[in-house]
């Protein structure tokens, strides 16, 4: 479990995260939802140790975040980080050489699933295929938790559907997934837990299925209630 406990982050005098607490469990998809600027990316960076926090704590499987903990997490950015001149196959080979936890079988499965071609250069890929290549490279690492910042942003409908299908497939296995988004419609049916954010604070967190079955409300219904109140 990733446990974010009352974390506070300031940029200058501005409180960007104000006692944010939530958990993301293994085997579940947890979604941080909020409009631009509420602090979603800052939370991701804090979990990855890429930005220091003022107070609060972050634990992964009951251990404080340290170098070992980072071997449990993969952060999949929204842009390709490999040189654009590299072919997909070369990028896969690079990852295999560099990371001990590269899972070649899963990488091949993802290549087929996304219908990507090894000989295509990263720089020549469409936005949708770049996102898929990014996912391929990240998901092929055997890590217990996957963090993805806006994996569906700016991607065409068919690519979004294909990417969404990965989340419900065996390719995710029983890993914990934490994603951020400001567009919920396409992915509402995939999400287990929802964390609604506003101006650096958690307004509400709930399980989507429980909300549907007990209160008959969709995630969008709850968002309307919370944000338009
Ligand atoms: N390096 C920085 N210096 C100063 N302020 C920053 C810095 N990074 C982020 N901020 C501010 O912190 C707040 C939260 O930013 P963050 O990027 O976490 O939001 P977000 O919810 O991920 O937004 P988006 O959906 O646009 O990515 C914003 O007001 C942003 O302007």
Count of individual beta strands: 10
Sheet having the most strands: 6 strands, mixed
- The span between the termini is 32 Å
Order of SSEs: EEEHEEHEHHHEHEEEHH
Write down the CATH topology of the domain at 1-72 and 178-229.
Rossmann fold
Question: What proportion of the residues is helical, as a percent range?
Answer: 25-40%
GO molecular function: ATP binding
Pfam family, one: ABC_tran
Protein name: ABC transporter ATP-binding protein
Organism: Paenibacillus violae
Fold and architecture overview:
This is ABC transporter ATP-binding protein. There is one protein chain. Strands 6-7-8-3-9-10 form a six-stranded mixed β-sheet, with helices on both faces. It has a four-stranded antiparallel β-sheet with strand order 2-1-4-5, covered by helices on one side. By secondary structure, it is an alpha/beta fold. It has eight helices and ten strands. Helix 4 packs antiparallel against helix 5. A hairpin with a 2-residue loop joins strand 1 (2-11) and strand 2. The protein has a domain at 1-72 and 178-229: Rossmann fold (3-Layer(aba) Sandwich), CATH 3.40.50. It binds adenosine-5'-triphosphate.
Topology of helices and strands:
Elements: E1 2-11, E2 14-24, E3 29-33, H1 40-47, E4 55-60, E5 63-64, H2 67-70, E6 73-76, H3 88-98, H4 104-113, H5 127-139, E7 145-149, H6 157-167, E8 176-181, E9 193-198, E10 201-207, H7 208-215, H8 219-227
Parallel strand pairs: 3-8, 3-9, 6-7, 7-8
Antiparallel strand pairs: 1-2, 1-4, 4-5, 9-10
Helix pairs in contact: 4-5
The structure holds adenosine-5'-triphosphate (ATP).
Adenosine-5'-triphosphate binds at residues 11, 16, 34, 36-42, 182.
Domain ABC transporter: 2-224
Organism: Paenibacillus violae
GO molecular function, one term: ATP binding
């Amino acid at each position: 479990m990733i446990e974010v406990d009352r974390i506070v982050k300031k940029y200058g005098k501005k409180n960007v995260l104000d006692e944010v607490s939530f958990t993301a469990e293994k085997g579940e998809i947890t979604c941080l939802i909020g409009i631009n600027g509420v602090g979603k990316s800052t939370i991701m960076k804090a979990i990855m140790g890429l930005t220091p926090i003022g107070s609060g704590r972050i634990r992964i499987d009951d251990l404080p975040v340290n170098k070992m903990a980072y071997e449990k997490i993969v952060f999949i950015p929204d842009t390709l980080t490999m040189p654009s001149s590299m072919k997909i196959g070369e990028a896969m080979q690079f990852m295999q050489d560099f990371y001990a936890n590269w899972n070649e079988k899963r990488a091949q499965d993802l290549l087929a699933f996304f219908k990507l071609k090894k000989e295509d250069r990263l720089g020549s890929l469409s936005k949708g295929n770049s996102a898929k290549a990014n996912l391929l490279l990240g998901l092929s690492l055997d890590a217990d938790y996957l963090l993805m910042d806006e994996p569906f942003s700016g991607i065409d409908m068919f690519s979004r559907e294909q990417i969404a299908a990965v989340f419900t497939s065996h390719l995710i296995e029983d890993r914990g997934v934490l994603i951020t988004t400001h567009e919920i419609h396409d992915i509402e049916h995939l999400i287990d837990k929802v964390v609604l954010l506003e101006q650096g604070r958690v307004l509400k967190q709930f399980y989507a299925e429980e909300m549907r079955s007990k209160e008959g409300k969709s995630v969008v219904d709850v968002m309307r209630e919370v944000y338009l109140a």
